[in-house]
Specification:
single chain, 449 residues, alpha/beta, Rossmann fold, 14 helices, 17 strands, globular
Length: 449
């Protein structure tokens, strides 16, 4: 089968080294740890409300936290065992969050979960309302990193009408291959999940965007789509940040999401490919979101892997299973090198939004000395949102908050292309993140008055 790779977004973008070390690695199941640590704030929005207490016995799938509001998500136990304590514990980002500590015992699952079953293509028996309700009950959030509650995306306000579903299988972030491995091993299940999403949104078309460095996935999934009405694979050029929501829409549809607007405003809903698989499991197996595939990788790791991991597992425990933390390790990142965040300790735990654990050595993390900006506009030429990063950095340094907002700082997707491309080694994104947060806080204060 001949594949033509033409689609991409037109504005900006970069080509960092791919470093897809684990691209050919099959998914392995991580061993169960002795303890898991479940934060009730693993999603965008309001933290879940805890419905268990110290001393309670739980099974795999027991509800631990109930969604507290519309933009929130249920939290379920990924293990069976005893709740030892509930206390504030630092998350991977360093913020203290209310966390449930569970001592793991036997691996006993709630009776409502269908633990082992063959592929189920039964889509017609599920109504639109049933799909949305089950997605909400199962605590499913976007697994691409943002962790936005999926049931909120499936709620279409009056006056809006989605015309197509876009599935993000680009996985453009260097090093990460969790989505790729899932595409290869669970293709049919993913397609069922996509069909369920289409039914929930009442759309007739779905496009799966896959970058051309995943030829094996494209060749596998393209013919399988013939079993489903309206699902099509769209091969994409390799370019970062192709997986950005607005960039994916531009690449596949040619449409632009206006500043301050959402994809739904122009008729599109975007979902990650791993999220589609989670929806298949929720609808066909009654399985809540208790585990996910995580890429554990790094050039110095003994056995980098794609691992199926229970939520709440410590990074340190997973690193032990891939040969241990290398002596040369200098930084541990939750996610990829471009948009991931360094963690303060390997005691950080896997959350619903953790797609990767990346180990970098000193050579890979050492920053070159920052020099004066020479106004070369490299940062402008690579910005996929058409912003002027050098200018936004200046506004931030001088607390020019109104100017920053007028120059669309809130449109920044924090992809890091500007910092990567700056010949003066200026950490532009660091400055922009701080200023963006300041503008958000100022706007919130105004809205409260």
């Amino acid at each position: 089968m001949k594949i033509s790779f033409k689609k991409t977004f037109s504005l900006g973008g970069i080509h960092p080294p791919e470093n897809k070390i684990t691209a050919t690695k099959s998914i392995i199941s991580a061993q169960l740890p002795d303890m898991v640590y479940i934060s009730v704030n693993q999603h965008i929005g309001t933290p879940a409300k805890i419905v268990v207490k110290k001393g309670d016995s739980v099974k795999v799938g027991t509800l631990l936290g109930q969604a507290d509001g519309f933009v929130s998500a249920n939290i379920h136990s990924p293990v069976s065992g005893l709740i030892e304590k509930i206390e504030d514990t630092p998350s991977a980002s360093g913020y203290y969050q209310q966390t449930i500590h569970i001592k793991v015992q036997e691996d006993i699952w709630e009776d409502y979960i269908i633990k082992d079953s063959d592929l189920n293509r039964d889509i017609e028996s599920h109504t639109k309302e049933d799909i949305v309700a089950r997605v909400k009950e199962s605590g499913i959030v976007g697994l691409g990193g943002a962790a936005f509650p999926t049931h909120v995306k499936l709620f279409v306000p009056e006056g809006k009408s989605p015309k197509a579903l876009l599935i993000n299988a680009a996985e453009c972030e260097p090093y990460l291959t969790a989505d790729h491995s899932l595409l290869l091993e669970k293709a049919d299940e993913i397609l069922v999940g996509i069909a369920l999403l289409m039914k929930a949104l009442a759309v007739q078309k779905a496009f799966i965007g896959i970058e051309s460095n995943k030829k094996d996935a494209i060749k596998l999934i393209t013919p399988l789509c013939s079993k489903y009405s309206g699902i099509e694979v769209v091969p994409l050029k390799v370019k970062y940040p192709q997986g950005g929501e607005k960039q994916l829409i531009r690449a596949i549809s040619g449409k632009e999401v206006p500043s301050g607007k959402l994809p739904l405003d122009i008729g599109y809903v975007v979902s990650n490919v791993s999220t589609a698989f989670a929806i298949y499991e929720a609808l066909q197996k009654n399985k809540p979101l208790i585990e996910r595939v995580v890429t554990v990788t790094g050039k110095r790791l003994e056995a980098p892997s794609n691992m199926k991991v229970r939520i709440g597992t410590r990074f340190s425990y997973l690193l032990e299973q891939v040969g241990g933390l290398p002596s040369s390790a200098c930084k541990v990142i939750a996610g990829g090198p471009m948009m991931g965040r360094a963690v303060a300790s390997v005691d950080a735990v896997v959350s619903k939004g953790t797609s990767g654990i990346l180990i970098l050595d000193e050579k890979e993390t050492k920053r070159a000395k920052e020099q004066n900006c020479i106004r070369c506009a490299s940062c402008v030429s690579v910005c996929p949102m058409g912003l002027e990063p050098y200018l936004l950095k200046y506004h931030g340094q001088h607390s020019m908050h109104e100017n920053a907002q007028q120059n669309y700082i809130l449109d920044c997707i924090e992809c890091g292309s500007c910092s990567y491309s700056c010949p003066a080694n200026i950490p532009l994104l660091d400055y922009i993140k701080v200023e963006k947060n300041s503008v958000i806080q100022i706007n919130r204060s105004k809205n409260l008055k």
